[in-house]
Amino acid sequence: MKNTFCENILANLNILPAAARFEKMKTDWPSMFDAFNKIDQAQNTAGTGANTYSSSLVTAFLVAGCVTKLQNVFAPLSSFTRQFSTDAYKPRAKGELKYASSATASSGSATGKNLTNFEDGDSVMEAVEITVDQYTRPFNVSNADLQGGLRMENLVDVNVGKFADIITSVVMAPLTAANYPATPLVSAAAAFDFSDLQTLWGQLKKSRVKNLLLDGEYLSRIVNTPNLFQKAGIAPGTGWQAFGWDGIYLNTNWTGAGANIVGFACNPQALGIIAGLPLQAPVSDQVLTRTVMTLPGLQLSVVLHNWFSLQQRTGWCSLDVMLGASLLDSTAGVLIKSS
Predict the structure, then answer these.
(1) Which CATH number fits domain 77-111+119-337: 3.90.920, 1.20.950, 3.90.1690, 3.40.50?
(2) Residues 144-166: pLDDT tens digits?
(3) In Å, how far are 37, 42, 200, 300 from 32, measured between CA atoms?
């Protein structure tokens, strides 16, 4: 970009003697500085002197590793269920469980006082039916995915979390007001405190084992409360015996449970589940590999299958388990609801 004013000044300066050039520079310097400053700003705005570089030449690279979105946290199944094994020959078989509900007398001898007939007394044995189904979570890496940088290990955490969500929704399904008639504890998260734990403890007075499952907003109200004289719990799990609880556990997924349920105080026999592994397919290990693994949090054994599709050049994995859940003892659980 040219400036005629500046060019004329420089031309005139060159023909003057040194002393005269000096005096001229002092006189005209403010106007010369302003003119040259305008030229500099215009050149910077126009990008004068910048290289022309194609954006397609600025390549991207795939950073090593993979970050998985935070997944739900699950309480161990053993903390709120009584677990039984599947049928060894046909794992999908429906299970029948004996439930001793009461003891009665046939002719008025319930008091047991001054008996004259020592062969008079009956018990009530009910059947609890547990339907078992096979639950599967498949995931894959195609040939295009592989060439693009995706690896099967990048998908493990998110699919393990999804599979745990599926299992939890099955196990939580019996947690309804119809199944557990005890008066539920209703509390907003901000109002939940240790007085609520005392209420729940009293409702479970017959239980020799007392466990508590809470959603995160509720557990946060009792974790490490500083105004208590005894040592408070600082994390989910065990260590809550000072407060009368065998264990208090964090569970962030209540999908499948009844409306507004955010916690469950119980003896583990409140729920019955049948869980096991599907039978191994009669194929070569080179075609279908099988590995038994334990799901974090739930502490449940499942099978990880792995195979490869030659036609599509796609690697496949699936998580599998045989599972069924049912109400077992309706007197062994108290629901906690947000409203």
Answers:
(1) 3.90.1690
(2) 999 999 999 999 999 999 999 99
(3) 9, 16, 87, 83
